[in-house]
Amino acid sequence: MKTKRDQPDFGYLSKALNAGAGLASAAVIASFFLLSTVRAQDATKTDEMIRFEGYPGAPEVEVVPRKDELFFFPCDQCHASMEPNPEIRPLDTMHDTGIDHGRGRIWCLSCHDFEKRDYLRTLLGEPVDFDDAYIVCGGCHANRHKDWAFGVHGKRVANWAGTRTQYNCTHCHNAHSPAIPARPPKPPPPVRAGLKRERDADHGESSTNSTEQE
Amino acid sequence: MSDKADSKEEKNKFEMARRSFLRGIGMSAAATAATPAWGGQTFSDAFADFFQKHYQRMSAEEIEEALERIERKASLRYGVKIDCANTPPQEGVVFGYAINISRCQGYRDCVDACVKENNLGRDSQVQYIRVLQMDRGDTNLEHSEHYYDPAEVPVEGKYYMPVQCMQCDDPPCVKACPVEATWMEPDGVVVVDYDWCIGCRYCMTACPYWARHFNWTEPEIPAEEMNPDTHFLGNRPRPRGVVEKCHFCLQRTRKGRLPACQEACPTGARIFGNLLDPDSEIRYVLANKQVFRLKEDLGTEPKFWYYSD
Question: Does B145 sit within 8 Å of A152, measured CB to CB?
């Protein structure tokens, strides 16, 4: 189907995948074939690029571009002059990324392309534009990806009618630590004047830790 | 001796209460004096307001005049130039809402956005959305907690369920209104004619979802935070002493925009759309997810679904 490209040895990756999650990776790759992909016609993207064609019956979706918001992009600014190092290791220079994603099964080069530093890569090694990061995410998270393609996971931008514009996965999720972090809630509603907050009898203790409200 | 001290304390207490009471009277008198004549508008506007008809019985010109009066009154009352529209419902559109309760983290960002969008008083108790904190595995709304305020949400072992107006298709509040000041619009949104409402609050008791709120005070909003984009049946400045409710942000949604709560939600738990469009997200949710509605047994047919995945 696709011509095999010259690649550095990714044996370590398959080893890591096998060690960590042989089953998961099999499912992952199988699900990835379900994402029908086509060669890009877009002039701004190279011929090698794949683009997501969509699920049967899925609506046309415009995705909010992502590259403008990336701090280090383009990566080649630095990496053009650096020798690529395929050794699995924690990065402590520049990219201070403790990867809290995949429970140790993945590392930088699982998603970032080894040769073309300005691109992401699929599990099959095809380069993916940073604006199309959802293709990479969909490689593993097929269910979420399908929900997203139908507008049920993630967020639609601005309008419910007309052109469908959706945020990319990486707008809401930090790809290196994708769980949405806990944070303080906005203030609770005021208790009606003259009344006092009752303790929540059914929960034993009141589920608030704020000081007593008036 | 201790008796004496007690009685002295008692007397002091009484004195304090008496003073604060008198001070209260003085302040309310001052407030009354500070309120301009004719409820903060010109005599002719107050006169026209008095004879303003029910929204559904007004002609186009009469509505236009009413909108202008609202704009004039807002500029006098808040010092802000607002734009009050009367955008009609779109053809072939019935709005529906769905919330993914496995996404909701209880941040209350929706509540905050709603208060700002709908010009709700910053310190009044009127908030159209309540986020209920519930125990995992418990669906009894009686056990919910909506004043939760932990250092960080989500709390372990809890889930969060935002409740607002369900825009019932068979709304009990509409049946309860003795003056027909509330009704369902063709796009499925239950609205209130704030000028026609007499503030009897029958609808509040009829509503099983605590979605209707009585405004005891005129909202106190800083002029710079006033949302100038308003709708006659939506977020225009309301008179005091009427019942208000969520109206799916009519001022936005009738122009194709999304409600403020959907836009504010940082987790993407909220899905809004047209129920009559088979390609809409909301229809995908209804067709592909396990959905439920609150108090479905009451037969109010809410157009507001909850699901988890």
Answer: no
